[in-house]
Amino acid sequence: MTAYNYERFDNKVYGPIPFALHSPKVGECATDFEARTLDGSPVRLSDFEGKRIVLETGSMTCPMFGGNIEPMNGLADRYRSDDSIVFLILYTREAHPAPKFPAHRNDRHKLKTANLIAPMLSENRTVLVDDVAGSAHRGWASFRIRSG
């Protein structure tokens, strides 16, 4: 099994994508997780209870994330005055680690790298930072629906 924060991308890291078959559906209750805000404060997904959540995962080296920043920011801007909706980014591992943005060594390194997202990419959504082990990200890959 490959480490979560792989040093070099290889498509064998992903293999079959099991989470594609188990991704959450609109209106389903999501599994709670803890992350950090860009200032390092702890936050839980359940802190946004009662709101509709648009959650995107991404990293500095993820081309899918980078290619969607402008339209996703536009969508967030469109609904900015609606207090019932929150747009979140869960900063995960580097999809394609490279010298400028290598695999995360520890939580402090990951938080420092995550703080580059907003100014470098003109990001205006709320960025949450997963721990270096990818606990939230990996938990969503095996998405479970809360009962009740």
Labels describing this entry:
single chain; 148 residues; Glutaredoxin; 5-stranded mixed sheet; globular; disordered C terminus
In short:
It contains 4 helices and 5 strands; from the N terminus they run βββαβααβα. With 148 residues, the protein is an alpha/beta fold.
Structural class computed from helices and strand pairing: alpha/beta
Treating each run of at least 4 consecutive H or I residues as one helix, how many helices?
Answer: 4
CATH level 1 class label: Alpha Beta
Shape: globular
Q: Going across the major beta sheet, what is the strand order? A: 2-1-5-4-3
Please summarize the sheet with the most strands: 5 strands, mixed
Order of helices and strands: EEEHEHHEH
- As a whole number of angstroms, the C-alpha radius of gyration is 15 Å
End-to-end Cα distance, whole Å, is 34 Å
Calculate the mean pLDDT score and round it: 82
- Poorly predicted regions: 16-21, 142-148
Query: What is the strand content?
Result: 15-25%
How many distinct beta strands?
Answer: 5
Task: Could you tell me the CATH topology label.
Answer: Glutaredoxin
CATH superfamily, please? Glutaredoxin
Amount of helix: 10-25%
Q: Which second-level CATH architecture applies? A: 3-Layer(aba) Sandwich
Summed up, the domain count is 1
